[in-house]
Inverse folding.
């Protein structure tokens, strides 16, 4: 599926979320929010519409990076990621996916080299389209449902409180530094510092 590298893109960093203002502050959109933080910090404009995504290209810590916000809605995120990977010739191990995680407390971060979707439909779609689980992911905790009767889909599409948004925003800089470690082939150090 992946052709020979035909561009100077070293990494694709994908933030998962749903397009549209009504989803902006929901638990499911923390991946988008991280990408927006990184784009602002690094001066990378997310102003292109390509590969079924909003995207921007720039340099972070010496690496040429494509920042990607799929516009396919969460459950079809893989269509955008696979299209960008094919277009730029980037292998899965150089695709870093940032997503929400209901199994982690609000603001907790977990980094893994690879693994299953863990019930996350965005990750499931990416795994299906890339035909592999072997890509790094950064999962950001958004807290679990208050009780088992609360519908999971409703929960992840619910808005974060101001306090929760603050706790999550406090981790953006740590995630930025973790990305820099991953770009330098030091994912173990990223995991040690964030997990």
């Amino acid at each position: 599926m992946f052709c020979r590298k035909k561009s100077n893109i070293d990494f694709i960093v994908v933030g998962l979320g749903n397009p549209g203002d009504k989803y902006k502050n929901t638990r499911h959109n923390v991946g988008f929010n991280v990408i927006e933080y990184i784009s602002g910090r690094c001066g990378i404009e997310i102003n292109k519409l390509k590969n079924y995504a909003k995207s921007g290209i720039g340099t972070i810590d010496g690496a040429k990076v494509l920042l990607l916000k799929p516009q396919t809605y969460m459950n079809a995120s893989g269509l955008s990621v696979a299209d960008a990977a094919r277009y730029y010739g980037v292998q899965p191990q150089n695709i870093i996916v940032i997503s929400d995680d209901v199994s982690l407390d609000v603001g907790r971060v977990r980094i893994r080299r690879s693994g299953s979707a863990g019930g996350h439909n965005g990750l499931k779609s990416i795994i299906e389209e890339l035909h592999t689980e072997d890509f790094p992911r950064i999962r950001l905790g958004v807290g679990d449902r208050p009780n088992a009767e609360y519908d999971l889909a409703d929960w992840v599409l619910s808005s974060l409180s101001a306090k929760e948004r603050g706790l999550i925003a406090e981790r953006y800089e740590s995630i930025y530094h973790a990305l820099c470690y991953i770009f330098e082939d030091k994912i173990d150090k990223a995991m040690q510092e964030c997990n």
